[in-house]
Each structure stands twice: as C-alpha cells, then as structure tokens.
Amino acid sequence: MGGVTSSIAAKFAFFPPTPPSYAFITDVSSSSSVDRLYITDVPRRDDVDVLKLRTRRGNEIVAIYVKHPKANATLLYSHGNAADLGQMFELFLELSTRLRLNLMGYDYSGYGQSTGKASECNTYADIDASYNCLKEQYGVKDDQLILYGQSVGSGPTIDLASRTPNLRGVVLHSPILSGMRVLYPVKRTYWFDIYKNIDKIGSVTCPVLVIHGTADEVVDWSHGKQLWELSKEKYEPLWVSGGGHCNLELYPEFIKHLKKFVIFISKPKGPRNGPNNTNPTDATKDQSKPSENGRADTFQLGCCLPEVSRNSVDSQLEKSKKTNKPEKSRMSVDRFKRKKGLVW
Predict the structure, then answer these.
(1) Closest alpha carbon to 61 in 41, 82, 35, 87
(2) Among residues 245, 257, 291, 332, which one is catalytic?
(3) How far apart are CA 88 and CA 302, in angstroms?
(4) Whether 245 is catalytic
(5) Is 151 a catalytic residue?
(6) Which residue did the predictor score with more confidence, 23 or 73?
(7) Number of structural domains found in the chain
(8) Confidence of residue 244 (pLDDT cuts 50, 70, 90)
C-alpha cells in the first residue's frame, strides 16, 4: 500500500529541475580530494561544505553546509518541490549571513545530483540523513537546531519535528496541511494522502513560526492559518498581506520577522513570553509592500527560480531590482502547472 501511495504522490508533488542546475567537480588542488558544488557565476567558498550523504533507503543525496563564524544555532532547510541546491544556493548564503546561523540545505532523492527517485518516504529518509550528519559530523545538538520547511518541504520538516522533542524551533513557509488538501477541500485524511501535516503538527513541541501570503494562489492561506492554530507552542505568525506563494522574501517584514523569531528562541526558556500568544491578525497590521530600497530589509535574490537558463534567470532578477512590487509574470519554483497535475 505504501508503494501505491508513493506513486500517487509522485504524480502530483515532485518536479525536480531537468537538467539539474549544478554539477560536481573535484578540487584536485587540495591535499585530499573534496567534491565541490559548481554553480555558474558563483565562486567556490571556503565557508561552504559540499557533502554526499547516504540515506537509510540506499540513495546518495547532496547537501551543502554554510558556516557562519558567530553562529549559535543551525538551520536545516527543506526546499520547495521544483527547486534544487543550485537555485537555492544564493538564498542559503543570504539567510546564513542575515540570521547569523549555520545552514544546511539538501536535495531530495531524484533532485539535482542526488540519486534515486523522489517520493514521500524518500524525503523522510533524506531529511533524517541530513539531520544525522549535522549531529555526527558537526556536533549540532537538538536544542541548537531550527527546522525550516518551504511549501512541500513542510512535509519532511514537520515529520522530523514531530519525532524530535527538543528542537529550538520550526519555521513553516507557505506550508501545506496535506497533499490532498492542496488539490481538494477535503475534511478528512485519506490513506493515500501524502504529507499529513495536519495530523502531525500537534506532536511538535518547540516554538512554531508560520509564514504565509494572504494572496497565495497555489497553497491557500488557510493551510498556514490552520497549522498555526493546531501548533502547541505558537509564535506570532507572519501573514504577508498580498503575498503570493513564492515571493515572500521580497517583502521587508519577511526577514525582520524571521530575525525576531531567531532571537526569541535563542533566549532561555524562562523569559519567553508575548509573541507566542499574539493574536494571528496582529501580524498584518504594519506590513508594507515589497521594498524598493535594496538589500537592507529584503532579498533581491533568485530564491524561487524557475527551471530556465541562467541568462533568463539573471534578466528576471535585474528586472526585479527596478520595481517595488513582486513580478506578476515571473514563474516561481512552486508554481509550475504541468499536464500531470498541480505543483506545490
């Protein structure tokens, strides 16, 4: 039955970029051969490790670990369903710098240069392999770890968080209640549903921040609101007024609110009060439109890039710097609609 479920899931949920946006090269100049991630127009960096991790299901996945010299926490990022590490690389660097965190991102099985085939069960094994690497290779403790799941990445994120009681925090970015609920307004969970976040979120015991756009046309805002309501330890959510599914990083409140959350969960548990009891409607009162003043409060990055050539991507990014609104025509990583079904 599990195999049937995975087959159904794959038809709706997984669209790895083809061809992958990056390739491996081996740095033969070092004393020991080290696989390095090669990305067009992005120089190799000493503060980024490129890793191959073996999962319990036998696949070899690619992960990158971005180091920050003043970090006191680590963020494990699970990306959306039509992106790979090459497209997320610049965003990972930016998040690490802005939030002063170490950051690990990984490609699901069948994505980028990871082997195997994308499936729900494989993504659970993929995040577990990344989590184990952080603990064993980098010495990260659970109370130093923040899990971050974007869109379909909320599935493996909530699954791991529901099994790991002492995490520092969880961020859910445009999350889904479940796969079926993205497609249909069902009232119950069926056996063939995937990423049953609605049934698992109650087992997450750490602070949970939910970020969702009120104008999301791919995963309705109601998904984020219900997950926030079902969370045990709620943190003030961020409902981005007018925000879509894959442009939230362009709004100044995005990084401000994320920073506030990281600072809050870094405090000893005793002083924590206030934000986790905030009425969810309060978070939209002072929100502004996407900033036009550069990088102080927003990302001007290809954080949700489509599967197109690099030249096309660069032209879109250049255009984004000249406007104070998200590009309505820009296709997002999580907004592709193909003949096989809706992508989220």
Answers:
(1) 35
(2) 245
(3) 7
(4) yes
(5) yes
(6) 73
(7) 1
(8) very high
